[in-house]
Amino acid sequence: MQDDLIFYVVSRRKWPDLHKNGAFAPEDFDENEGIRCVLPQKLGEYLDSEFKGRKNLFLLVIDVTRLATNMKKTKENGFITVYQPINIDAILDKIRIDANENGEFDVSVKSFT
User: Fold this and answer.
1) What gap in Å lies between CA 96 and CA 15, rounded to an integer?
2) Which residues pair with 97 in a beta bridge?
3) Which pLDDT tens digit goes with each residue over 32-65?
4) The pTM is what?
5) 46-51-53-59 Cα dihedral, nearest 10 degrees
6) Which of 39, 54, 77, 84 has its CA 20 to 30 A from that of 45?
7) Residue 49 sits in which domain range?
8) Beta bridge partners of residue 58, listed in sequence order
9) Cα 45 to Cα 65: distance, rounded to the nearest angstrom
């Protein structure tokens, strides 16, 4: 699978305050730390380890090819870190997700190419 899509998880409640002026950035955004987005092959594992039992989350689907061309990013261990706010037109969708009864997520991404 190509790494054209990356994902970021945000609280559904906080989402409206985090995408202003045509860009998205977490409330604790720091240009030195960046926005750590997960690659498709690590998504399920990441959700279960970082968000176990959580509900009312949005999974942001981000198209890497639509990121602003001057955007600095690094790839490491199943993650891509973006060091600037993410332009809104690079966010293809936001999908509401909730943990199941066991506190885990039934989410996987498959390639059809």
Assistant:
1) 11
2) 57
3) 999 999 999 999 999 999 999 999 999 999 999 9
4) 0.89
5) -90
6) 84
7) 5-97
8) 10, 96
9) 24
